Amino acid sequence: MSQTAVIGRAAESFVIEGGRPLHGRIQAAGNKNGALPILAACLLTTEPVVLRNVPRIADVETMIELLNDVGAEADWTGGNELHVHAFSTRPASWRRRTP
Q1: Overall domain count for the chain
Q2: Report field, pTM of the whole predicted structure over 0.70
């Protein structure tokens, strides 16, 4: 009988036991915990950025709206592909806020 077990909550590997060796490839699904900080980091460059394997979920859509609101251009260009260009944002001015 084959069995798959994930060890620990944040495991980086799987333990697979069974009678036959596995082979092949899989594409890991994108996740919001990785996508959201990467989208925010796109504001740090004026170069265009293309992100692939981005999940189409409400949190990502909200982040896209926020990026557009601060002057970046963020648009879906494919099923799970985003184009972000923050050429007109001014991060330096954001750091100078006074209480």
Answers
A1: 1
A2: no
